[in-house]
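Materials and Methods. Structural model of 5-formyltetrahydrofolate cyclo-ligase. The 230-residue sequence of 5-formyltetrahydrofolate cyclo-ligase from Maritimibacter fusiformis was retrieved and submitted for structure prediction as follows.
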Amino acid sequence: MSDDDTPRGYASPPCLAHEIDPTYFDPLAVDPEQARDVARWRKAERVRLLDQRAGLSVAARKAAGEAIADRLDSFLAERVGSLAGLTISAWWPIKAEIDLRHWLAGLADRGARAALPLVAVKAQPLVFREWTPATRMERGFWNIPVPAEGDEIIPDITLSPVVGWDAECFRLGYGGGYFDRTLAAIRPAPLAIGVGLEAARIATIYPQPHDIPMQAVVTETGIHNPAESA
Ligand SMILES: Nc1nc2c(c(=O)[nH]1)N(C=O)[C@@H](CNc1ccc(C(=O)N[C@@H](CCC(=O)O)C(=O)O)cc1)CN2
Ligand SMILES: Nc1ncnc2c1ncn2[C@@H]1O[C@H](COP(=O)(O)OP(=O)(O)OP(=O)(O)O)[C@@H](O)[C@H]1O
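The predicted structure was written out as C-alpha cells:
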C-alpha cells in the first residue's frame, strides 16, 4: 500500500451515460410534460369533485357518514378481527368531508386508540397524535384542527378522506402529496383505507410513480378493492 495521500479519484465514476449515448433512456424517469398535464388535470378534477361534494345536503352527507361507519365496521371485522390494541387514524372533517368523529370516539370502547394527522413540516410525511373527545385542539396547517399536544404515534390502520378515487383504489386528495409521503415513510406499512362518496369515483387518477394505492376504498354503498372490475 502506498503511503501517498493524494486522492486517486472516485471508486466509481458518476453516471454520465446520458451524455455518452444520446439515446439513453431511463425507464423510471417521469416525462415532465406528462407529469405537468396530469397535475393540471388533477387540479381541475379536484375543483369539480369538491363542488359536487359541497352541493350535497347536510342530511345526505350525514346519512353517507353513518352508512360508511357501518361498512367500515364490517370490513374491519372481516379483515382485521378485533380492533383491541390497534391505533387507527382518521381526520378532523373540513370542506364537507365525511364526519367519522363519532365512530372514532367509539374506538376506545373497543380497546383501540384513535389518532389524527398533522402537518408538522410542510411537504414532509404527516405526524399522528392520539385523539379522544377530551383532547385539546388547536388550528394547524391549512387551519385544520389538530391535537394540541401528545407524543407522535404510528397508526396500524390509516383512514384517509378522498376527494376522488378510482378502480385501482388510487386516491386523489387536496394535492399536497401528504398521504403518499406518509404511506411511503411508515414501516411496517399500515392498512391504508380510503373513505369517500360513491359519487367521487373516477375512471383513473392517472397514477404517477409517487402515488400509493389504498388497500380498500369504503363508500356509503360498499367496499371497493383494487383491480375489481367496474
Ligand atoms: N380533514 C383533513 N385533514 C387532513 C388531510 C385531509 O385530507 N383532510 N390530509 C390528508 O392528506 C392532510 C393535510 N392535507 C393537505 C393537502 C394539501 C394542502 C394544500 O396546501 N393544498 C394546496 C395545493 C397544493 C398543490 O396543488 O401543490 C392548495 O389547495 O392550495 C393542505 C393540506 C392532513 N390532514
Ligand atoms: N413520496 C413522495 N415524495 C416526494 N414528493 C411526493 C411524494 N408523494 C407525493 N409527492 C409530491 O406531492 C405532489 C402532489 O401529489 P398528489 O397530487 O398525489 O397529492 P394528493 O394525494 O392529492 O394530496 P394529499 O395526499 O395531500 O391529500 C406530487 O406532485 C409530488 O411532487
